[in-house]
Amino acid sequence: MSSAIYILLVIAIVALGLAFQMYPRFPQMEKTILRISTVENFSSPAIAPTHPSCIKRNTDAQAILSMFPQCNDDNKSPSEDALNRVELKLILNKLTCLDADVTNSGVAGYNTLYLPYNTSHDTEPITNFVGRCLNGGARARDIELIMSKYEMRGNQLIASIAKIMKISPEPAFELYKSVLRVTTNALLFNCKMKRASMDIPAGVRDPGYSIPFTIEKLAPFARTMD
Predict the structure, then answer these.
(1) Statement: residue 51 has pLDDT above 50
(2) Residue 139 CB burial class (10 angstroms; 0-12, 13-18, ≥19)
(3) Terminus-to-terminus CA distance in the chain, angstroms?
(4) Does pLDDT of 44 surpass 50?
(5) pLDDT per position as a tens digit, 56-101
(6) Is 169 strand, coil or helix?
(7) Are 141 and 226 a contacting pair, CB within 8 Å?
(8) Pick from 53, 91, 118: which is nearest to 175 by CA?
(9) Cα dihedral 130, 191, 95, 47 sign
(10) CB atoms within 10 A of CB 88
(11) Buried b / exposed e across 38-64, counting CB within 10 Å, b at 16+?
(12) How many CA within 13 A on the CB side of residue 20?
């Protein structure tokens, strides 16, 4: 029994020695963990980053970003080219997140929730449109207008960046057209939209064909000569 107690005491002494030896490193480890969590923007394991990236859903969007990588501009006032690349990446992220949200019906959360509103390419906050899309408040014309603005602004950015890089923008135009087509198809297929009725009455009690009294009793038009 005495030998067992002696072994336990030795183990305890060794453990205390290791603890005191590692103690000066603990603050450094804490600072390192804090720095990593700040850079990665993780507040807890269950919360996603502030700006989710859905671009990995679409290989064409990834190809565009590989053609136009982000600028490492350390100046306080970034160049116009750097801002154009950031906006193009944001548009690609919005298009792919829009596809993800309407396809999954928000079951896995809304990727578009924290994406910023930008008047140069947005007609409305993108999450608002996702809500209208999934709740029957969108129309085919809404989709056409939204995607038309994304197409116009994206092509402008691609042309501007390609001109500075002195390369042809045509390959990027084709890739971007494919990204737009995928998102448009997802919206047309998943958005709950009422079909156009063409003013056809729904039934015998629908007053679709009735004429208001004020119009029904109007006198015929007659032109008088002075």
Answers:
(1) no
(2) middle
(3) 132
(4) no
(5) 888 999 999 999 988 876 666 778 888 999 999 999 999 999 999 8
(6) coil
(7) no
(8) 91
(9) positive
(10) 24
(11) eeeeeeeeeeeeeebebbebbebbbbb
(12) 5
| Nearest residue to 146 via CA among 89, 94, 90 | 94
Read off the pLDDT of each residue in 10-15 and give the average, rounded to a whole number.
75
Structure tokens at 140: 């085919």
The reported pTM is 0.63
**What's the token pair of residue 90?**
């944001």
Compute the mean pLDDT over every residue in the chain, rounded to the nearest whole number: 77
Residue 49 has pLDDT above 70, yes or no: no
91, 143, 145: which is closest to 121 by C-alpha? 91
Question: What is the pLDDT, as a whole number, of residue 34?
Answer: 47
pLDDT, greater one: 206 or 34: 206
3-class DSSP state of 203: coil
Residues 192 and 130: beta-carbon distance below 8 Å? no
